[in-house]
Structure prediction request, 148 residues.
Amino acid sequence: MRKGKRGLRLCAGITAVALLSSFWTTSPAFAEPLTGPPPILTEGLTAFCGGLGLYELNALIDEIAEAAHEAIETAAGEAARAAFLAGVEREAAAIEQARRWRQEAEARQRALAEARRNGRKNVFIAVMLGVFGGLAAGAGGAVYFMGR
Prediction:
């Protein structure tokens, strides 16, 4: 977990550098002529980049942009992997829940089958007690009334 956070921090840093470096150059989409320095350059930035020529500055910006693209691709890959793993974890949880439901249903089926067997046995015992009780009562009553 810590390794992933470090990679995301690195990606955020590179993205921030690329974003800030994009302010140093003009984009052809704005259709600004490249006759003079970009209006964003200040004296401090000019002094900082004074030793660098325009070609070196563009090469440096290209390197930073390439590093930012690689970091973005890496972060996108990590995000895709994390999303895939989250999906797998959800599927595993759903399978586990389905397995639990199946076990509960099987346990209910076993309990119902046992209750049916016990119910049949209890009905048979009750019928037999009724029959034998009736026979005993009938025979006892017959003996009692015959003896009178």
Helices lie at 2-22, 43-48, 54-146. The chain has a mean pLDDT of 79. The chain has one domain: 2-113. Residues 2-113 form one domain.
